């Protein structure tokens, strides 16, 4: 396995596409815009799911499952919602195939046309709120804190593995509350969970904020988000949490009797993260040698490669390695002992570097004599020789160090790429030469936001939260502004 | 919460439908044939998933994810496969909605018609084997042992919660092997896993066997299955594992170089269980008071209900209960302490009986004085008073006993309802009066099988495996037969 990766400097975008495929994370399928998530990539996604699921359950949420199909009339009930999704809907119109009468093959049976078309869910607010109408009568039924793990489809014209695909996997939370305040607190609590997950599990530093009106979720009153910075200076939205007000409750007529017996519409949130996080993970940490995975999400945390000539040497090494594998597993560390005799050690080193395995042990004849292992860490590519008696402690420490180091490295890069600018000229120039996030004053109008986007391709990523008040003047129009907002070009 | 369940005797089918809804497992949605799986039902499904996933991984399988859409041309490549699924396909024909020009609302944009229609997967053999062509070149790439957790859609005209729904959740394994023998062994190994899961986790006894040709999966050479018996004497197919021969490898041109360097088609299996198992679970154990859940799959294994007047009494009880809750959780037992003051103990007893919680503890003033708990088991409804110092051991034992007891009860029912018959008259008469499984001789022809089905609605559930050879004569035609096969009416 030669890596032959395009370097980040040569072509960042090509580097990413090649890496995702060569590291066995995902590949394009024969279905336009739909990806195949390969076992190694899926194993990382499973670790993400497990951590998030635990956090949701620890905060009182339960999982459920709602239909994949949404009747067209449901989607149409909330006006801005359907406007936001109409242009990218996969539509089911028929329910049967048949043999063509002229013998030309299998065709859609024109007689099996649905009375009402069904949309493959792009998101599930409408079908869920149609259900909540049956579940909610009284304040005693609230809050309703539900999450769903599911696939969704948005018919994107230009797709990229993990970052933008027609079908993707995600979780979508949908909660119902008796008061506005409680719903807002829920949306913010979830943003904190996403932040903790991104920073502590993915080792990806993020900036929390709210979206400008133009970037809000279709149907939301407020959209909270976390924004990460990739190594090419572009931002990536890593999760969103929406305060939906009473919009969906009104569209689907979901009322409850409060403690005083009065009827009121229910308050709502929705929130989600998707397999897009896989793209963020790859682009934040990886290098020209391949993936760099945070130990907390690595399917294999430690790989052990024997270096030997002949079966006798291999047996001696295996006798030493097998108890170590057992001890590491007992500590909850996932270990692979790669004693395949069909591949040379150099090939294996390359492969595990490409796949981002955090810690690699090698053991040859000299190590056997000296009672040592060679320990290499993926993040810095440093190697050292460690006594066998100390190797378990060493690995435990190292996994923690790597987790911290890649977070700190990403944080340093991000801090180095947040620039405060006060003039539009400076903004435009630095956006091209340096990239990254820009904190600048904006007059708060959609017109100015749109102009900046058209002229520079940069968008308002968020209004950082909690807000830091600072009087200033819009860098474009000079009109007054009460706080800086965060701009960047984005994925 | 009054239970007011229809009894099994009154109307078994109605009892089932009511129970699924009242026990908060699932309900019908606004989308024809698609169900909503409610949190309590989904929590059981998650426990099923976790146990199965562990068993698959322990036998070397990995998870991956393939597209939900299957191009019509893919589905058409294996002739008997498409014939089996064509009549129940949800077909995506368009990818955009728009506002009607006459202002009548949202319509499907006729200009956004797909060049090739996409089928929402009814099963994934075709898209997966199209992918395997890229993954398999050499015997070194084999075996490929992959599983997928996914939703699938089969457009059934008559649907019932869990048992037959247009959309359902399942796992589908798809493996590729170098030899016929290895593929057959894989199909049989999976059947053993399914059997172990059904009997040891669900406490549902099953009979293993192979399907007759007429009941085989569309595209399979051999279909293995497990069959369970419900309390109304009808059979339910609880899982299938297919040996696919080289059918899909040939349809998708998947060849590999063997050790001698020769090209050969790859051998395949596929296998699956679905949310249908939820139906089997409900129908096997539950009674006229509600669900009876096996402790291994119960979301709540133990519920504790305080019986008190006033806050002082509640506080005294809580002081006693909270350390117990902690100790039980430390042993991995899931406990709920229901101290809601909005509901009376009687209401709570009813609710947890309906929801099948295996063990219920109650504690009132007298228990407090005597240092005891009242312990009730759901399967037999028996109660006893247990000393506080013994209650943890007692609960641990009881959970195990309940798991065993409901299995043995279901097994006794099943054994009592397997009848060996030698004449068609006897078969028809006992099928109506007694129901259950029938072991009878059959001449092996599709014609006789079809005749029996038309005249009695009974089908061949399986040819029990391993086969018990016994010379005999077909109960219908008198032609020679080498073994008895298993008949029943089925879900
Ligand atoms: Zn050290
Ligand atoms: Zn006892």
From TrEMBL, chains A, B:
Pfam families: HGTP_anticodon (PF03129), ProRS-C_1 (PF09180), tRNA-synt_2b (PF00587). It is found in: Cytoplasm. InterPro entries: aa-tRNA-synt_IIb (IPR002314), aa-tRNA-synth_II (IPR006195), aa-tRNA-synth_II/BPL/LPL (IPR045864), Anticodon-bd (IPR004154), Anticodon-bd_dom_sf (IPR036621), Pro-tRNA-ligase_IIa_arc-type (IPR004499), Pro-tRNA_ligase_II_C (IPR016061), Pro-tRNA_synth_II (IPR017449). Coiled coil: none annotated. It catalyses: tRNA(Pro) + L-proline + ATP = L-prolyl-tRNA(Pro) + AMP + diphosphate. GO terms for cellular component: aminoacyl-tRNA synthetase multienzyme complex; cytoplasm. GO terms for molecular function: ATP binding; proline-tRNA ligase activity. Residues 27-294 form the Aminoacyl-transfer RNA synthetases class-II family profile domain. SUPFAM superfamilies: C-terminal domain of ProRS, Class II aaRS ABD-related, Class II aaRS and biotin synthetases. Keywords: Aminoacyl-tRNA synthetase, ATP-binding, Cytoplasm, Ligase, Nucleotide-binding, Protein biosynthesis. GO terms for biological process: prolyl-tRNA aminoacylation. Gene3D superfamilies: Anticodon-binding domain, Bira Bifunctional Protein, Domain 2, C-terminal domain of ProRS. The keyword Ligase applies. Belongs to the class-II aminoacyl-tRNA synthetase family. ProS type 3 subfamily. Consists of three domains: the N-terminal catalytic domain, the anticodon-binding domain and the C-terminal extension. Homodimer. This is Proline--tRNA ligase. The lineage of its organism: Bacteria, Pseudomonadati, Bacteroidota, Flavobacteriia, Flavobacteriales. The gene is proS.
């Amino acid at each position: 396995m030669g890596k032959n990766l395009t370097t980040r400097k040569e072509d960042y975008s090509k580097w990413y596409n090649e890496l995702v495929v060569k590291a066995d994370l995902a590949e394009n399928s024969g279905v336009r815009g739909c990806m195949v998530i390969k076992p190694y990539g899926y194993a990382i996604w499973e670790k993400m799911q497990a951590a998030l699921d635990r956090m949701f359950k620890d905060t009182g949420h339960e999982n459920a499952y709602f239909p994949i199909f949404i009747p067209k009339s449901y989607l149409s009930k909330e006006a801005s919602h359907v406007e936001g999704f109409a242009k990218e809907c996969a539509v089911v119109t028929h329910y049967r195939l048949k043999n063509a009468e002229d013998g030309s093959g299998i065709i859609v049976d024109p007689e099996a046309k649905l009375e009402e078309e069904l949309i493959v869910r792009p998101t599930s607010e409408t079908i869920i709120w149609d259900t909540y109408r049956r579940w909610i009568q009284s304040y005693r039924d609230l809050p309703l804190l539900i999450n769903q793990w599911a696939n969704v489809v948005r018919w994107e014209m230009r797709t990229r593995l993990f970052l933008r695909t027609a079908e993707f996997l995600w979780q979508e939370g949908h909660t119902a509350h008796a008061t506005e305040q409680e719903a807002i607190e829920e949306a913010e609590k979830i943003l904190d969970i996403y932040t903790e997950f991104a920073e502590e599990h993915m080792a990806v530093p993020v900036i929390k904020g709210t979206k400008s009106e133009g970037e809000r979720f279709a149907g939301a009153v407020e959209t909270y988000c976390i924004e990460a910075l990739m190594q090419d200076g572009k931002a990536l939205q890593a999760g969103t949490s929406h305060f939906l007000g009473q919009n969906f409750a009104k569209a689907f007529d979901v009322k409850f009797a409060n403690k005083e017996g009065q009827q009121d519409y229910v308050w709502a949130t929705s929130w989600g993260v998707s397999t897009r996080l896989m793209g963020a993970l790859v682009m934040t940490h990886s290098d020209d040698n391949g993936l760099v995975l945070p130990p907390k999400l690595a399917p294999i945390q430690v790989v052990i490669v024997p270096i030997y000539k002949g079966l006798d040497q291999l047996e001696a090494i295996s006798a030493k390695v097998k108890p170590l594998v057992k001890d590491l597993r007992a500590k909850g560390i996932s270990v692979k002992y790669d004693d395949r005799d069909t591949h040379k050690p150099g090939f294996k080193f390359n492969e595990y570097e490409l796949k981002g395995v955090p810690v690699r042990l090698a053991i040859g004849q000299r190590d056997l004599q000296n009672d040592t292992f060679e320990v290499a860490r993926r993040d810095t590519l440093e190697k050292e020789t460690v006594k066998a008696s100390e190797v378990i402690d060493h690995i435990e420490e190292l996994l923690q160090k790597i987790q911290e180091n890649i977070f700190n490295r990403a944080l340093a890069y991000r801090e180095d790429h947040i620039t405060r600018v006060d003039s539009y000229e400076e903004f435009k120039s630095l956006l091209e030469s340096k990239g990254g996030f820009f904190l600048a004053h904006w007059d708060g109008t959609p017109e100015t936001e749109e102009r900046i986007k058209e002229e520079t391709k940069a968008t308002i990523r968020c209004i950082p939260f909690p807000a830091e008040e600072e009087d200033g003047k819009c860098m474009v129009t000079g009109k007054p502004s009460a706080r800086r907002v965060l701009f960047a070009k984005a994925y």
